[in-house]
Amino acid sequence: MFSGSGPDGTWYEVYGDLKRTPIVLCHGVGLDLHMWDDQIPVFVRDFSVIRYDLIGHGRTPVRSNSSSISAFTEQLLTLVTHLNLESIILVGLSMGGVIAQQFAAGQPQLVKRLVLMNTVYKRTEDELTGVRLRLEQTENEGLEPIADAAIARWFDADFRRQFPKVIDKIHTRLISNNVEGYLNAYRAFVNCEDEINSALRDVDCPTLVITGGLDTGSTPAMALRMNADLHDGRVVIFEKLRHLTAVESPDRVNAEVLAFCLE
Prior knowledge:
The chain has a single domain (2-261), classed as Rossmann fold (3-Layer(aba) Sandwich), CATH 3.40.50. It is 45% helix and 17% strand. The protein has helices at residues 40-43, 69-82, 95-106, 125-141, 143-154, 157-162, 164-175, 179-190, 193-196, 220-229, 245-248, 250-261, and strands spanning 2-5, 11-15, 22-26, 48-52, 88-93, 111-117, 207-212, 233-238. The radius of gyration is 17 Å and the shape is globular. The mean pLDDT is 97.
């Protein structure tokens, strides 16, 4: 493994030989590259793997002009260019999936395959109500209340009891975020429909859409909505999982993603 900071300050880690097809992993709001800890040892057997911290998250510094999805898409393009990657498999979860949508639509020559995990697309006004309220709450009350609510929403009681170290790690990450960086990213996520629109209609590469049957924010209905606009898409719904499928059931998710990437 080697790591470094890109020309724009993006912190990244590279696993395996970049001569092999690279899988690039893009995390969600409030998390960091470590949300992919359970994916690295599996994917690196067949691919090189790159993970990085979004603007204002982890070890990537805050930027004042990062309240749009395009700012995060440009960050990804800068990283791909810096590493001289010619063709990637792009995997994004939640906001990472929104970034992946815009990137794949705008840079089709760079994306060989696309995996969209627990992400959003063409949300209705009713579907936007919850994220708008959470943004307002964070602006008024800070990160602690929103972190507690996220843990309750993302993981059921059984998972929280069985894996307290996982819960503590994610909760600590959420509350230790730079508030400005978090809010910039969350505003971009809340308002992403204005930028993304019907971007998936411009995506031609094979695409796998994954979500949890119990994900209240990135619902199965949204996954089917994405698939309807894709030229070569398929949907996998893990009925008993919630929002962080890659953390909740890494073995099942890894097997599905790996099978798709190896086709």
